Structures are given as structure tokens and as C-alpha cells.
Amino acid sequence: MKNLSFFIARRYFLSKKKKGFINVLSIIAMVGVAIGTAALVIVLSVFNGLEDLIRSLYSSFDADIKISLKEGKFFEYDEELKTQIQNIEGLATIVEVVEDNVLVRYNDGESVVRMKGVSPDFEKNAELRNHITEGQLKLTEKEQNFAVVGQGIRYDLSINSRNNFLALQFYYPKNISPGRSNPSSMYNSGILMPAGVFAIEKQYDEKYIFVPLRFARNLIGKDNECTSLEIELEDGVSVSEIQNILKRKLGDSFDIMNSDEQHASLLKAIKIEKLFIYLTFSFILAVASFNIFFALTMLALDKKRDISILFAMGTPIKTIRNIFLKEGAIISLSGALTGGLFGFIICLLQQEYGLISMNMASAVQEAYPVKMIATDFIFTMLSIAIITILASFKPAQVAAKSVEIQRL
Fold this sequence. Notes:
With about 400 residues, the protein is α+β, with helices and mostly antiparallel strands. It has helices spanning about 5-15, 20-60, 80-85, 125-130, 150-155, 200-205, 215-220, 240-250, 265-300, 305-310, 315-355, 375-405; strands at about 65-70, 75, 90-105, 110-120, 130-135, 140, 145-150, 170-175, 185-200, 210, 225, 230-235, 255-260. The strands form two sheets. The protein has a six-stranded mixed β-barrel. The protein has a two-stranded antiparallel ribbon with strand order 2-11. The chain starts with a helix and ends with a helix.
């Protein structure tokens, strides 16, 4: 009696004697659930892949930990601060950074860009070296300084890193006040030869130029000051642990951010989009579950005679109700497992062979990135379970009610 409801529900679903309209409707309901499940799994996996892709791109540009002032722009990197930071174990490099907007001219073109002056340890950035598309990652050679420019700036100013006769001209305003007759006294200037071009992501490529720290400080008029410190950690060192140590040592006057926190708004936006996609596809699955509702309702009406016989044989009303609940569970579970497997196979093929291209000439990755996470499958199945219970409850009540009418 315990498994009677499941046995009968399975017989109704797999009946070979009578393939009528109800059976077709059940199959349509199962296919609808399968398609919705596969679509949800694939879309969520694509969002996971995009999030990982964005993190990998930013890791080429951003350090594991960035230290900057909460209020103000420049701070002095004196011996006391240097000692506090360098005494922490697990730090691979500490890069001093001076960053500000400057005007750059090259040949007949000019543009306002973000100049990022970095100390020599920056050239150890192996990940950025992989994004050099022209020339090399070189900021100093003997006593000569060089610049590494973003690909967008290169196109905008028509920069040729192989041309040894044209240099980049940098201009930074200083002491602007009325009454000055000599324009050259209102700005600092300097020149650098372009050594290389990098291509990471559009917002960096069209905005940033890397220059040596000493050049940036001279141009801006600073001696020992920085706008930030960028710290790379040794392999296996916990970012959160070092971050907490730095917060305790440096106090509340500094912002100490890991790579995710440096782009918190963007990553949060991706998670919100993923949530809304999940809710949207869950709604689509709910619409698809109307087929389950209609199939079970028609089954309850079609099987009135069977229900009457079961009731006459002493079958409890609860068992009769469970027949239709389990029938709905079989339909949805079959669809969910089929759709989940299909979605898994599609994502696996996309990971291995890149079947679907992003169709963008400037894309950093040719194929759409995908990443499957177990929790996506779990929440998808949970959504289907809830939807199935809601869709199956009314037909089960109809069947139970018909039995109660007979008893009266």
C-alpha cells in the first residue's frame, strides 16, 4: 500500500495500451519542462563564464590588493609606512603608483588619457605581458624611459611603437592662475618613446598609458608621494588574511581592497542580472507547468472509474491524492533530468570545442565562456519541485473530491 500510489502513477505515465490525448499532453508537458530546464542551466552557466572571464581580464591589470586613501588623492610613502607593509609575510611585490589624467600629443593627434606611473616591480606582471600586442612591456632601459599604451589610444593617436623619431608628449597643468602671460609656465611637460601596446579590455585600452614612476612624479610635481600601492601576493597566500592584517596595521584612513572589491559595482550588477535571469526562466517554467496542470486535471476526469474502484477496494483518499501528485512529479522529474542532462552536454561541448562564437572582431575570447556550478543545478531542481507541487495540487484535490462525493 505504501508504494501503490507511485506504482499506479507510473503505469498511467508509461501506459502502452492507450496512447491518447492525455498521454500526448503529458509528453508535451515533460518536453516543456526539459527545454526550460536546459535553457536555464545553459544561461546561468554562460553568466558564470562571463563573470570568470571579467575576473581574469581584471586580474591582468589589477593587483591582488590595492591600498589608497579614503579621503584625498596623494599620500606619502615614507619609511614608517614602508616598514609596516614590507614586514608582512607573503607579499611578492609592492608597486608604488601615481595615477592622474594628462594630455598626450602624438604627431598631429592629442587626447586626454589616464597616466599610470608605476615602480620597477610592475614589469614583473607576467599576466599583463601576455596581453602585449605590439612591442614589449618595457618602461625603463638604462637611463631612458618608455611608455606602454592601450590599444584604443594607439588607434586614436595613430601611434607606431617602431617609429624612433616620434615621441609621446605629456602635459600636466600646474599653478593655473589669472594674469600669467607665459602659457608654458602653466603646465609641466615631458616626452616618452612608446615601447609597446597592450590590449586587455575596452575601458582600459582606451584610457590608460603606463609610464615609469619617476617620470610621473616629475610631471605631476611630487617627490615621494603615491596615489595607491598595488600588492601582489605569493602563490597560496590568502588574500583575505593579508587584507585583514593590513587593515589592522594601517587603520581607518586607508581603503584596502581586493580585486573583486575594486570592481564591486560591476560584479554586483552581473549577479543581479543572473538573479533576474533565474527568476525570468523560473517564470517560464511555471508557464510550462500549465501543461502539467491540464494533463493531470484531464487524467483525474478520465480515471474517475479507476478511482471509484480503488476507493471501493478500501484505498484511502490520501493515497488517491498521492497518485496524481506523484504523476506530476514523474512528468516534471523526467523533464528536469532530461533537460539538465541536455544542458550539461551543451555546456560541456561549448567548454571543449567553443561551438558558439561571440562574433566580435575585438573579443578577448572567441567563444562564449561557460562555467557549470552545482548550486545552479540544485536551485533549478528546487524551482521545478516547487512549481510541480503547485501545479499538481489542484488536480489531486479534484480526484480526492470526486471520491468524497461518492462517499456521500
